[in-house]
Protein 1
Amino acid sequence: MKPGAGRTRVGGRYGDAALVVAVQVPAVDGRATAAALAALAKALGCPSRDVTLVSGATSRTKVVEVPDELGPGVAALLES
């Protein structure tokens, strides 16, 4: 996750299998994490409740869980 970015963007790879999520919101009081989860849900075309933070609430590296049927969407975002 990249907080404080110039614009909110989801897509691309960081390392081998990490998805890049950039958000305009600064990393203060968990607002950037919430914005990142919302941006990911929007990019996948699913409700926010389907994107769950598993770990990394205060880290730039986050682990999220999405339903299995969204796997192809995640793969497409990694390649964009």
Note: The CA atoms of residues 33 and 47 lie 16 Å apart.
Protein 2
Amino acid sequence: MVDCLFCKIARKEIPAAVTYEDETVIIFKDIQPKAPVHLLVVPKEHIESIGHLKGDHREIVSKIIFAAKEEAAKNNLKGYKLVFNVGRAGGQLIDHLHLHLLGGWTEGVAQSLNV
């Protein structure tokens, strides 16, 4: 999609603090972090949301989750949250599938957060 913010980041048309990238996934820091570590795990293929997934997207979803797991380990996160927001009513602000990786809190703090 031409006007999609995350597609533009994946194509390097807009700068981002990229922490990981391969042929299918890009991970970058959220510009409005809700945690000490707040990264967005984004497929390079434009998929609007979880609600728009098709059967052939299973591999991409798996790749997103495993990339998040590896990035959490790289950041030495002992615990973390993985969040998919789906649709405006679910808090999704950008119409491109993405997974929030949140962590880095001191022990006990994450339980009190509603993310």
Note: The chain has a mean pLDDT of 92.
Protein 3
Amino acid sequence: MFRVNGKQRSWYEGMTVADLLRDIGDSHHYAVVRINDKHVSMPYFEKTRIPDNSEVFLIPLIAGG
């Protein structure tokens, strides 16, 4: 198990950030994800694994002018 934005989720061996985003089916575009105290940017979502018992925060892309 691990937490995503404060909610418990099931975890599986080898789960990456990209897997998580596909699993939750969230339509937001995320520029950065924080796993515990480490920030991961979009180009690394496919390669970055999420450890069991992690705290994950999804940080949406925000644009303005």
Note: The mean pLDDT is 92.
Protein 4
Amino acid sequence: MTERGGHFRDVPYMGVIWVVAEAVKRGFWNGNPDWCNLGQGQPEIGEMPGAPERIRSVTIEPEDQAYGPINGTDEMRQAVADHYNRLYRQGKKQYTKENVGIAQGGRLMLSRVFGALQGRLGYQVPDYTAYQDMMDYAESRVEPILIPTLAENNFSIPAAEFDAAVREQNLDAYIVSNPCNPTGHVIQGETLAAYCATARDTGCALVLDEFYSHFIYDGDDPATGPVSGTEFVDDPNLDPILCIDGLTKSFRYPGWRVGWVLGPPEMIETLGRAASAIDGGPSMVTQRMALNALEPSYADQETTALRAEFVRKRNMMRDRLEGMGIRCLGGDATFYIWACVDGLPDGFNTGIDFFWKALDRQVMTVPGNFFDVNPGGKRSGKPFEQWVRFSFGPPYDNVDLGLTRLEQMLREAGVDC
């Protein structure tokens, strides 16, 4: 038999998965108390001060054994619509189940979106690492257009510049994680309203990846509530604005793989058609569980407690990283700190060098280059070579231990911290 090669393309690990794979080679496993995963892409999942008890069981009904509707059950879709109407749409035109699609997690929902997009797609860097491979999958239909950002703008695009870019570049769609992974910056208030107005006025589809929507802070304190583009939608049935979220981050149930999208019914139907080939629809069982998490009193207690606990961890991490001579970008959202290590000694002052040195101490971080979304690898250079994403997703004591190890590492390198 003749040997053949090249069956699969070379598929790289996404940033966090590469970090975990390298740590596993050295003995890491999820939950290993000897390790500190400050690269973690999920929030802590256990009991938390002020939060309701974790949901631990579900009654599986006979109909749950069958395939469910492509875009989710009517009950789940309406529960999501009600959740957004309660938080963002008081006195405004309401979302209905027809405005909602359900998928088995956020990346799967994004896969549906990229399976349906066509034309000129605007994006920024740094941003969520998975966008690059999704753009590559859709290269026959999608032309990625990079809209530059500046550090002084927290690597975000001011509203006027966004409007100008959409018009000058003739964009058909624009995607951004908001709040942003990795920078922790959140587009909100008048700026977010202006983004939505640009989408409405130009017809450019605005795809807002809102998975960190409840991790919002007001200075050193928890904010009073979440942020979503749905607040600034005029007509849920007409505005070309898609808002994607789920239970993974803000409800601390990543293993359930529950995601959703809100938008005009026509766009939701198209995403359902894409799902018929991509994934076949979400689990009936996880949707039944999710109904409990979206019950208003449970949801509000969980997300309020989340902001209080995570801002406490954010403040600790920021202060101690800055005490090590690491420059932290100001971020008021997510559970990440985007930080520059250019002030550290040689051997520690790039993201990849810092990663390897920290890994020797059983501390995991994510080098900034992973967030340089670069479809097709066409752009040269490494603009985020000296940046690192630090996560305060793990429990407080584990974050504390990880920072202590990093302080010791840098002291031994001659850094006064």
Note: Residues 51 and 381 are 44 Å apart (CA to CA).
